[in-house]
Every structure is written in structure tokens, then in C-alpha cells.
């Protein structure tokens, strides 16, 4: 049975869906960029780029201002005597982040940036031998991830052309060249067998929006003795994740997309509990990973914290953490399962309206296992579609050759936004 019926293709119906949405008040907690309306009035932009940079929680300014104020009044003493002391400041976000990615607090830390964390994790979990050295990635992986895995292979003396293996996308009549069936993916892991050292996938894929069956993938990788890690740039704050239960070795993510922590916001990392006390795992170290009780004794020997915090290198940027604190508190109140429920309905509404209004003109690449984002191919469109849609008040993005990405974010997008976006797209085409 279809989730929506033809009467729901109307502004009134979209507004009714908003009235029924128990999370609708969260929109008020965000700054929605304002643009000029047709009669010179200001109106909120139709913002569908949360998969790129999430919007600013209003509270972020208050939390960042507080730390600036503390700095101005306390100087170095802020490390100990600020209202939220800077020394353990990153701990303010740990519990909330753990809930967001489905982990235990000792498995999660906010630190560094995403690509840096990916390298740190590969130092620990990509330990190739002459026979087991391959890394399995998506065929359309994000360039930075590709550069990172290639450079790790090279660093260990392997030719990336041999060491880095791309997933083969689904073939056949309904193939879009961008997604892969679970069964086929598991077969590819199995076929690599003893040569596979690491599976490293984007959850979801940044381009197609496909979400993978994490637990199945971990099980298959473990069965043949490979490590497995996930890049949650497009998953953290978007998908319902269960990193601990799935048994992934590691995960990394940025927080400026669905986690709304601001441009260049501090990233995150997860290491499964089973590795936390394993002294045989190599790790690049810095003083922030050292035993908190003795860190300031400034001793020469590194003594790791018995949590994922041992992977920290430097003292973290407090102003970025303050913004992330504001955002993760919103997630703690709204709760991931409820957000996910709304997100599914919003994205389904978007898909349904797109198909209904644009039909044959478009191909929806994103499969049903997905997060908020839809990847839509429109043969023949060029980059100018982005500005045409923007002139009509909506922000989406274009990727060569003919791909549009758009994500309704359940914290701040409404069904009415979705309705207007589809209208803007239709008018632009
Ligand atoms: C899937 C994926 N990987 C890596 C990156 C790079 O992130 P950073 O510049 O924070 O290292 C991004 C950024 O958008 C991304 O989407």
C-alpha cells in the first residue's frame, strides 16, 4: 500500500503532515537562512544541504560565547575553573555522541577532523602482511577516503592499484552503476578471503545515499579475518546506528553535516570495547591520550587512557566543542529513533512527490535502505540547475555528470519545505 495518496500532493496536505509531526518544534531551535521573498519580505530558505553542512543551532552562539567570556575573564585558569572546565570539556559530548552512533561512552570520543581520524584508525586497524593486504572500499567513495586508503597502502609498501579493491556495483537491467545489493557485497568480501585486510565503507555512501547492512558486513569480514571500519560522515545523526552491537572495529565521522556543529566542526571516532585494552594494537600517540591523572606530571612514558580517548593526540578546540555540545543536546532531547521515524517519512514524501511530478524525467538512485538524502539523476541537466533552483529559494547540490543530492533533515525541515522544493525543481526544469 503506498504511504501517500494523491490528495497529499498539495500545500494544505503538507501543512497537515507538519501539524501531525511531534518533532516540529525543533525547527525553532535552528537559524534557517533568510532570503528575499517576491514582495521584498524575508522568508526562510528551503535548505536541503544538511548532508553537506547542517544549519546552526541557536544555542551554539550562547555556548561559544560563554567560552569566549570565560577565556576573557580567566585566561589559562579556564582549563580548571571555567563553568565547564576546558580540561575535560570533550567529555560533555561523549554520552550524547555514544547514543547517536549506538556505542558505549568508553568507545566514543570527539577529536580532530574526519580524515585525520581515518588515518589514525588505519594505523591501528590496517596492519597488512605480504599475503593479507587488500582494502575493500565503495566504487564511488569520497575522494578524501580514496586518497587516505591509497596513501596507507603506499605507506606500507603496496601498490594501491593492487591493494585497494572497489566494490562492484549491481549489474543488469535495473543497474544504476552506483549501488550494490547486500548479497553481492557479501560475496565480494568472501571472494577476497585471506587477501582482505580491511573493509572500509561509507555509511551511507556520500553520493548514492545507500546505507549498508552494517551487521552483515561486519560478520562477513570477521569470518574471513579482516578488520572492518565505517566512515559515518553521512550516517552520524542520520541513520539509526548500532556500532557496538554490530561489532565494527572502528568508525569515524565529521560533525558538520547532520550533527550541525558548524564548518570544520570537530570530528568523532569509535573503537570497539574489545580493543581498548589490547596492548598489541599500534597507535600514534599524543599527550591528550595519556592517563588523565598523571598527564601534567609530564613524564616521558606514554600511559594510554583505557578508553578510546587513548587515540587523542592534542588538547581539543573548545570553541568547536562548545558548538557541538549545543547540537548534541538537541539530539539527546529529540532522540534518534524518533528522528529516524520522521526522517523516513519526510524522505519518502520527497521521493513520492518527485516521482509523481517528474516521473520519467528522473531516476532515483538511492535505494530504500538509506538515510535522509536522495540522489536523483536527471539526464541532460547541467550545473545551472543548482542556481535555477536556488533562485526559487531552495538549496540542493549538483555533482557531475547529472546528479542532484537533496536531504530533508528531520530536525529542521518540514513537509511544507519538501512540497515547495519539488515545486521549485519542477519549475526549474
Ligand atoms: C564521506 C566523506 N569522507 C570524507 C570527507 C572529508 O572530511 P574532512 O574534510 O572533514 O576530513 C567528507 C566530507 O564531506 C565526506 O563526506
Secondary-structure blueprint:
Blueprint: H1 11-19, E1 30-31, E2 34-36, E3 42-44, E4 46-47, E5 56-57, H2 58-74, H3 78-81, H4 91-101, E6 108-110, H5 114-125, E7 134-137, H6 143-155, H7 160-163, E8 164-166, H8 182-192, E9 196-202, H9 214-223, E10 227-231, H10 243-246, E11 250-253, E12 268-271, H11 318-334, H12 336-358, E13 363-364, E14 374-377, H13 384-391, E15 394-395, E16 397-399, E17 403-406, H14 415-428
Parallel strand pairs: 4-15, 7-8, 7-9, 9-10, 10-11
Antiparallel strand pairs: 1-5, 2-3, 6-12, 11-12, 13-14, 14-17, 16-17
Bound molecules: pyridoxal-5'-phosphate.
Residues 113-115, 142, 144-145, 202, 206, 231, 233-234, 254 line the site of pyridoxal-5'-phosphate (PLP).
Describe the protein.
The chain has about 425 residues and is α/β, with parallel strands linked by helices. It has 2 domains: about 140 residues, Aspartate Aminotransferase, domain 1 (Alpha-Beta Complex), CATH 3.90.1150; about 270 residues, Type I PLP-dependent aspartate aminotransferase-like (Major domain) (Aspartate Aminotransferase, domain 2), CATH 3.40.640. About 35% of the residues lie in helices and about 15% in strands. The protein has 14 helices and 17 strands. The strands form 5 sheets. A 7-stranded mixed sheet has the order 6-12-11-10-9-7-8, sandwiched between helices. It is globular, with a radius of gyration of 22 Å. The model has no long low-confidence stretch (mean pLDDT about 95). It binds pyridoxal-5'-phosphate.
Amino acid at each position: 500500500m503506498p504511504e501517500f495518496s494523491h490528495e497529499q500532493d498539495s500545500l494544505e496536505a503538507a501543512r497537515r503532515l507538519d501539524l501531525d509531526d511531534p518533532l516540529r518544534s525543533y525547527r525553532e531551535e535552528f537559524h534557517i537562512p533568510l532570503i528575499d521573498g517576491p514582495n521584498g519580505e524575508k522568508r526562510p530558505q528551503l535548505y536541503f544541504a544538511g548532508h553537506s553542512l547542517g544549519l546552526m543551532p541557536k544555542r551554539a552562539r550562547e555556548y561559544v560565547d560563554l567560552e569566549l567570556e570565560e577565556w576573557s575573564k580567566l585566561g589559562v585558569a579556564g582549563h580548571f575553573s571555567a563553568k565547564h572546565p576546558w580540561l575535560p570539556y570533550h567529555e560533555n559530548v561523549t554520552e550524547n555522541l555514544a547514543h547517536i552512533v549506538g556505542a558505549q561512552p568508553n568507545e566514543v570520543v570527539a577529536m580532530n577532523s574526519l580524515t585525520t581520524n581515518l588515518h589514525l584508525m588505519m594505523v591501528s586497524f590496517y596492519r597488512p602482511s605480504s599475503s593479507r593486504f587488500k582494502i575493500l572500499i565503495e566504487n564511488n567513495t569520497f575522494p578524501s577516503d580514496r586518497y587516505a586508503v591509497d596513501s596507507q597502502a603506499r605507506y606500507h609498501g603496496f601498490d594501491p592499484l593492487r591493494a585497494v579493491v572497489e566494490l562492484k556495483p549491481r549489474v543488469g537491467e535495473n543497474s544504476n552503476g552506483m549501488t550494490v545489493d547486500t548479497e553481492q557485497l557479501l560475496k565480494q568480501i568472501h571472494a577476497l578471503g585471506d587477501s582482505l585486510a580491511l573493509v572500509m565503507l561509507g555509511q551511507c555512501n556520500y553520493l548514492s545515499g545507500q546505507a549498508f547492512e552494517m551487521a552483515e558486513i561486519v560478520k562477513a569480514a570477521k569470518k574471513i579475518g579482516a578488520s572492518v571500519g565505517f566512515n559515518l560522515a553521512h550516517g552520524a545523526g542520520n541513520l539509526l546506528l548500532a556500532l557496538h552491537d554490530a561489532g565494527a572495529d572502528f568508525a569515524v565521522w565529521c560533525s558538520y553535516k547532520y550533527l550541525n556543529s558548524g564548518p570544520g566542526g570537530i570530528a568523532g571516532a569509535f573503537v570497539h570495547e574489545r580493543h581498548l585494552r589490547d596492548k598489541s594494537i599500534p597507535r600514534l600517540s599524543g599527550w591528550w591520550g595519556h592517563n588523565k591523572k598523571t598527564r601534567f606530571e609530564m613524564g616521558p612514558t606514554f600511559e594510554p587512557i583505557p578508553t578510546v580517548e587513548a587515540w587523542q593526540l592534542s588538547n581539543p578546540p573548545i570553541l568547536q566543542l562548545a558548538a557541538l555540545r549545543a547540537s548534541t543536546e538537541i539530539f539527546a532531547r529529540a532522540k534518534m529513533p524518533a528522528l529516524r521515524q520522521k526522517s523516513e517519512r519526510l524522505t519518502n514524501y520527497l521521493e513520492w512527490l518527485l516521482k509523481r511530478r517528474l516521473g520519467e524525467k528522473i531516476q532515483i538512485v538511492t535505494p530504500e535502505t538509506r538515510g535522509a538524502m536522495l540522489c536523483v539523476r536527471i539526464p541532460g541537466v547541467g550545473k545551472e540547475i543548482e542556481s535555477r533552483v536556488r533562485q526559487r529559494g531552495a538549496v540542493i547540490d549538483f555533482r557531475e555528470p547529472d546528479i542532484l543530492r537533496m536531504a530533508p533533515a528531520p530536525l529542521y525541515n518540514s513537509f511544507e519545505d519538501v512540497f515547495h522544493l519539488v515545486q521549485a525543481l519542477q519549475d526549474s526544469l
